[in-house]
Design brief:
Blueprint: H1 2-5, E1 12-16, H2 29-38, E2 43-49, H3 55-67, E3 71-76, E4 88-94, H4 114-124, E5 125-136, H5 144-151, H6 156-166, E6 169-174, E7 199-205
Length: about 210
């Protein structure tokens, strides 16, 4: 998948919503893979929202960094996320873009502004740089926040429109993770479909 998306040796990459706390996610799963893929001349910055990063998460991630030292963890709120302009060759959002529409008091996950967030990512991506996006497919229509709250899925048309509004161009898509048996009606974490959801893979590029 990362080969299709265009990650290369020597890239400076950004992994958004990297995942730090087990058992809800595999700690920095793609950050570690990308760290190995970009090699010693590359680097990976792994961002985790501050409300999701606790002491256990920091300890978990420290173990990853000991294995792959070119991975660096940063944390902030989405509103306070600060990235150097035009500093990344490659950005990954794996099964997380829908969360920019999510909010949850129990998990202290505040409402985000998807458009403001993508504006930051666009500014931080180098001209000609890539943003790879994988997400759970939702049926067309409906209020996006309501759909995300109920199903943790997103309509691909909404996702694409958001990225194009930010200035990215859709360069390619893959059906590698498409699953026609998924009727898009179940929560993406439902045991009946978890790990087998219908998913889009999009490669967006920032124009030069």
């Amino acid at each position: 998948m990362l080969k299709f998306l265009g990650l290369e040796q020597g890239d400076r990459a950004l992994d958004l919503f990297t995942g730090t706390t087990a058992p809800f996610t595999r700690v920095g799963y793609y950050a570690e893979i990308m760290g190995r893929a970009v090699g010693p001349k590359g680097a990976v910055v792994a961002w985790e929202p501050a409300n999701l990063l606790d002491d256990a998460g920091k300890k978990n991630f420290a173990g990853l960094v000991s294995r792959v030292p070119n991975v660096h963890l940063i944390s902030s709120t989405a509103a306070d996320l600060t990235l150097d302009p035009a500093s990344f060759d490659f950005v990954l959002m794996h099964l997380v873009y829908h969360d920019t529409y999510w909010e949850n008091e129990q998990f202290q996950f505040p409402r985000m502004d998807p458009h403001a967030f993508l504006a930051k990512i666009f500014a931080a991506t180098k001209p000609g740089g890539i943003v790879g996006v994988v997400d759970h497919v939702a049926a067309p229509g409906g209020d996006t926040r309501a759909v995300v709250r109920k199903l943790h899925r997103i309509d691909p048309a909404v996702l694409r429109a958001d990225f194009e509004r930010a200035g990215f161009k859709l360069e390619a898509e893959s059906d590698l993770l498409r699953n026609p048996a998924d009727d898009h009606s179940k929560l993406s974490l439902d045991p009946a479909i978890r790990g087998k959801t219908d998913r889009i893979i999009y490669r967006f590029r920032k124009p030069r």
